[in-house]
Write a structure and sequence with these properties.
Strand 3 (71-75) and strand 4 form a beta hairpin. The chain has 2 domains: 24-141 and 181-199, Nucleic acid-binding proteins (OB fold (Dihydrolipoamide Acetyltransferase, E2P), Beta Barrel), CATH 2.40.50; 142-179, no CATH class. The longest helix has 18 residues, at 2-19. By secondary structure, it is an alpha+beta fold. The protein contains 3 helices and 9 strands; from the N terminus they run αβαββββαββββ. It has helices spanning 2-19, 40-45, 115-128; strands at 26-29, 54-64, 71-75, 82-87, 105-114, 146-151, 159-160, 174-179, 182-196.
Amino acid sequence: MKKFAISTLVILLMVTVATAGTTEDKHFGQPLTIEKVTPLKDIIASPADYVGKEVRTAGYIFEMCTSSGCWIGILPSIDSEEIVKISWMETDVRFPIGEETTGHYIEIQGEIITAEQEEADHEAHMEEEGMDADHEHAEAAPEGTTRTVYTCPMHPDVQSETRDRCSICNMYLTPHEIALPTYSALAITGIGAIVKEKK
């Protein structure tokens, strides 16, 4: 009996260790069917090459609709100065509002459109829902004209929104003040997304 109890405890510990720290990606909308991930910075750099096309891209969620979770703004990288609005108004996708969404890494699939087209679609959506412009607001961004990002002195590609340690050399990341991002002339009408843990 004692051997059985010890064996059971060992198995439970093995399962606990194997599953510790594991998290599930959160899927929204339709499955992502495009295999290749086109870097968001490439889309921003060559808008004429992508408008009207469906792509799979990725970035970091910077802010979002706090009234219904029907749009998000994503950055190509944590220190990017340009943000792209992803609209989900033509779908039933609604993101959890707050820290459960903002700051996370996301892969999305959707059609590239102009910001003007997205704005017109957004106004039509708000009118349809009986909302006015004051009813909806973005997730509170840092006040002022700058925000803080943290980077590794030895590995500048390692970045974070908090003072973590470098995943390569374990050094503390150092703070840098950068300009708040501004919205791109492009937007994306999303059809599906995978939200991952903060990277």
